[in-house]
Amino acid sequence: MTDNASFWDKVATRYARSPVRNEAAYAETLARTRAYLKPSDRVLEIGCGTGTTALKLAGSVESLLATDVSGKMIGIATAKLADGAAGNVSFRQAEIGADTFDGGSFDAVLAFNLLHLIGDTAGAVRSVRDQLKPGGLFISKTVCLSEAGPLLRPLFRLLIPVMRFFGKAPFVRFLKISELETLIGVEGFEIVETGNYPAKPPSRFIVARKV
Ligand SMILES: C[S@@+](CC[C@H](N)C(=O)[O-])C[C@H]1O[C@@H](n2cnc3c(N)ncnc32)[C@H](O)[C@@H]1O
């Protein structure tokens, strides 16, 4: 198992118990995402964590396959299916880019709170592109810590490596919004909507169409 997967396994139970940090920003993210989803859509979510968002969006689509590198996260997510609700959702343990799921050709791929945690962001975006049909949508939200305020940014830059050394934080990439959007464009997408939910530090919501 990779260090990355074992970190997320270790924190999965605590992550499942922790409340959504900003309810208003989360509600806005869900609403803007639903605005792009259609009842006929086959959707893939990557880095789905404990499946909360997948289950909330399931009613808006035909099917939703949600994946995560952490077996523990997927275990918690799968347990939520026990009552038979959301029969169109399935969960699978998988690392980004490791596989083409169910033949690819998804109408949309979702990645919330994920891209800043990946060393090879460009590779991750490229693998998302491979999973999409032409014209398919990549809907993501990514915290851009390079644009945190003048007090928070140096604090994060100091604390995260120290916490990581002690196994208390994952790999975190300090992204700029412009850098992220350029990268998505370079990998073959046209950006159709952006927003910051929340604004500080900016969690960049991006809807991009495969061209
Ligand atoms: C901050 S959590 C976000 C979970 C969920 N998307 C949310 O918004 O609550 C990041 C998730 O990404 C997963 N993850 C990290 N690196 C990954 C990778 N390389 N491939 C797939 N999943 C990954 C972690 O296991 C974790 O569940």
From TrEMBL:
InterPro entries: Methyltransf_25, SAM-dependent_MTases_sf. The keyword Ribonucleoprotein does not apply. GO terms for molecular function: methyltransferase activity. The keyword Heme does not apply. Keywords: Methyltransferase, Transferase. Transmembrane segments: none annotated. One of its GO terms (biological process) is methylation. Residues 43-136 form the Methyltransferase domain. CDD domains: AdoMet_MTases (cd02440). This is Methyltransferase domain-containing protein. It comes from Roseibium aggregatum. The lineage of its organism: Bacteria, Pseudomonadati, Pseudomonadota, Alphaproteobacteria, Hyphomicrobiales.
